[in-house]
Amino acid sequence: MERIAEILRRHWGYSDLRPLQREAMASVLRGRDSLVVLPTGGGKSLCFQAPALALPGLAVVVSPLISLMKDQVDALTDSGVAAARLDSSQTADEQSEVVAAIRRGELKILYVSPERLLMNGFARFLGAQKLSLIAVDEAHCVSMWGHDFRPEYRQLGELRQAFPRVAIHAYTATATRQVRDDIVEQLRLRAPEVLVGSFDRPNLLYSVESRADDGLRQIRAVLDRHAGESSIVYCIRRADVDAVAEKLTGAGYRAAAYHAGLSDEARRNAQDAFISEEADVIVATVAFGMGIDKSNVRAVIHAGMPKSLEHYQQESGRAGRDGLDAECVLLYGPGDYGVWKYIIEQSESEEAKRIAMAKLGDIVAYATGAVCRHRALLHYFGQELEGGNCNACDVCFGDLELVDDALVLAQKILSCVHRLEERYGGDYTAAVLTGSREERILTSGHDALSTYGLLADEPKKRVRDWIEQLAGQGYLSKEGEYNLLTITPSGRRVLRGEETPRLLKPAAGAVRAATAGADSWEGVDRGLFDTLRVLRRGIAEEKKVPAYIVFGDAALRDMARRRPTTVEGFLQVSGVGEAKARQYGEAFVAAIREFCRNRELETDVDPDIKAVPKPTRKGSKARATVDLARPMVYERFDRGQSLDAVVDGIGKSPDAVLEYLLGYLREKKLASPEPWVDAATFDRISEVARVTGTARPINILRQLNGLVTYDQVKIAIVCIENGE
Ligand code: ADP
Q1: Please, which residues bridge with residue 301 across strands?
Q2: Ligand 1 centroid from CA 88, angstroms
Q3: pLDDT at residue 520 greater than cutoff 80
Q4: DSSP assignment of 200-225, as one string?
């Protein structure tokens, strides 16, 4: 392992190993077969690449995609490793050159496609060379149980026979037991060491938002948090891809569209633009992503719900492969379920339909559930999250708040479904509950129902969300072509008060923007980082490789943190090995020197913080946010603007604005709530509060049923407390 440490420093510039990398490398060094299951971004490649340099002979790596092989070989070569690939996309001359290099014993790592490897003559040729190991990357492709079975991978079973004395190591990110067992069997691994890592990705910040309209405002909010960085927006349908891409481009974003309906060329251009960072955003269907190794994707936004949690994990997992913080936002609309249900119903076999509907139910439960997102995802894949608060999802951040009296609220909703004789959908039911004057409601006389207008104080959209949450938790089900709401047996238990659902509403004022990535930006000069990115892009273009092959974002941030002005100092940067320092050291050091001189920035900083923050859970520090909007909002309150006017003016939700107002009243210690609550209402609330106390605003609301709103009660309470 000492040798490995030296290799890592020299070629990769890394000083630490990630979880299980040490164990995985030890298996390779000992020549014992292994199966390593680590999540995307877990660092599987290093598990065989570093030992390959420590062992005598040639390491053969089987990989399913030419684009992946090319990326890996480019990255290795750039780090000073003698690596090459053999696949059908190369000319005969190129292939013979590689074969000659193998013969001369010049190569340490050879990437090869499965069909090329098992070509009769070639296997025999390789068998005559000294091989250090065989690595099968993306090994789940051998299994029919996996999501990406490839028939040509099945032949890899012949490897064992063809190379009986070489250890075989399999690597995958697919966690299910069935796939794992199948890999061992198909590849005929001999008493393999099986290493399964945690599937949690602590550096990913997960959140789910209820989609407003077409979701564009929410998408832009996320993109703006990562301006100038790479993001992926996934849409369900091709038409949505085109529409979103067009709107983003129109609004000045550097966005490209990608889906199977485009020509090969258009797709290739979009992908290249994204990889070379000419485009910051790629808007795509699920067709995009396989074989994309881009490590510095900072946000993955789902504009619509994917059809399963497997898909969600895979797609959202493309964020933050470099271990730096990244955001995964799922925008969920009630219509998404119907879209998928319709698509699933077109499938042929009953069995497939049943499985797909069950998976759809699971993701709806995730989207509408109130459980920590990391915990929920991990649990789905058969692992449990250790510890309490994950500090990296909307639920744990408290962006979502549990509704105070969920039982009563749920009963109101379920009673309304009952009164509507279980013959209407979610939209209609929400309209009745909020007392809508829509014609369809008046014509059918539903304004006379006892549940009409029962939730008139709430925005219709929120009521609609609660209906979805109840459906997601199994208290309501959606039946037939029109998704008519019906009450399930557990829903009936709620009506009898025997069971209480968990209902969520957005918490006010949760400003996550500044939080995302706060840690990994510590000490980094953003201006310098941006300057170095431009330099990186230029070099990458010249070399015709993706930008992240030159340096990952983690390395650039560490440069902008340490600001080395010598090549020796440059070598201290995490992610800078000797080969990189030799090739790029001078250019980067010169850029750093110039930038720092012009701005009188301190150089050659030796940060006592860890160079590259490892993806570990953050403590409460991560939540210490700087709220940039607050002064702007407070200034409007100073001018006496109403809540509605502020909502319109700053584009935040009514809840957020209310929370700002409460903070404002506390900070200014105002004992009068005018102009936000009129004097008569304030008196009324104060009177009740004298009896009930101010600890449970909901009690005051109940006593004054219909006379005041919940917002007014909350505002009044702050002023009452200020006056005490
Ligand atoms: P996987 O194949 O498991 O999805 P990769 O092998 O592509 O993951 O690694 C993801 C990223 O993490 C790459 O940019 C890689 O260089 C980086 N990486 C891997 N191991 C380490 C380490 N020990 N220290 C720092 N970065 C690492």
Answers
A1: 233, 329
A2: 27
A3: no
A4: --TTEEEEEEEPPTTSHHHHHHHHHH
Candidate from 45, 136, 196 with most ligand 1 atoms within 8 A of CB, to mutate:
45
CATH class label, 204-397: alpha beta
**What integer is the mean pLDDT of 543-555?**
89
Tens of pLDDT, residue by residue over 270-295, are: 999 999 889 999 999 988 987 677 88
Q: How far is CA 523 from CA 67, 398, 560, 612, in A?
A: 35, 27, 8, 11
b/e burial code for range 9-30 (CB count within 10 A of at least 16 → b): ebbbbbeebbebbeebbbbbbe
Ligand 1 centroid from CA 295, angstroms: 8
Render pLDDT for 81-112 as a digit per residue (tens, 0 to 9): 999 999 888 999 999 999 999 999 999 999 99
* Common-topology check for domains 402-506 and 620-723: yes
- Using the mean position of ligand 1's atoms as its centre, give its distance from the Cα of residue 183 in Å: 23
What does the pLDDT read at residue 622? 35
- Please enumerate in sequence order all residues whose Cβ is within 8 A of that of 358, keeping only pairs 6 or more positions apart, or say none: none
146-158 pLDDT, tens per residue?
666 777 788 898 8
Which CATH number applies to 402-506: 1.10.10.10, 1.20.1560.10, 1.10.8.100, 1.10.472.20? 1.10.10.10
DSSP 8-state symbol, 286: T
Q: Domain-by-domain residue ranges, the chain? A: 2-196, 204-397, 402-506, 518-599, 620-723
Assign domain 2-196 to its CATH superfamily: P-loop containing nucleotide triphosphate hydrolases (3.40.50.300)
Arithmetic mean of pLDDT, 238-254: 95
Helix ranges, 263-372 (H)? 264-275, 309-316, 334-345, 350-368
Give the per-residue pLDDT at 395: 84
Per-residue pLDDT at 509 exceeds 60: no
Contacts of 590 (CB under 8 A, 6+ apart): none
**Cβ < 6 A, ligand 1 pocket:** 14, 16-18, 21, 38, 40-46, 295, 321-323, 552
Which atom of ligand 1 is the closest one to the Cα of 42? 3
Classify domain 518-599 by CATH number.
1.10.150.80
Query: Could you tell which of 23, 40, 46 is best to mutate to test the pocket of ligand 1, judged by most ligand atoms within 8 Å of the CB?
Result: 46
pLDDT grade for 610, boundaries at 50, 70 and 90: very low
| Nearest of 158, 139, 165, 156 to residue 31 by alpha carbon | 165
Q: Among 7, 230, 321, say which to mutate for ligand 1: greatest number of ligand atoms within 8 Å of CB.
A: 321
Closest residue by CA, ligand 1 atom 11? 322
Q: Which atom of ligand 1 is nearest to the CA of 40?
A: 4
More confidently predicted of 33 and 2: 33
Q: Which of 23-27, 63-67, 371-375, 699-703 has the highest mean pLDDT?
A: 23-27
Residue ID of nearest Cα to ligand 1 atom 25: 14
Ligand 1 centroid–CA 561 distance in Å is: 21
461 C-alpha to ligand 1 centroid (Å):
42
φ and ψ at 268, to 5 degrees?
-65, -40
Angle among Cα 334, 340, 344 to the nearest 5 degrees reads 150
Task: Give 46 Cα–ligand 1 centroid separation in angstroms.
Answer: 7
The rounded Å distance from CA 382 to ligand 1 centre is 24
In CATH, what is the architecture of 620-723? Orthogonal Bundle (1.10)
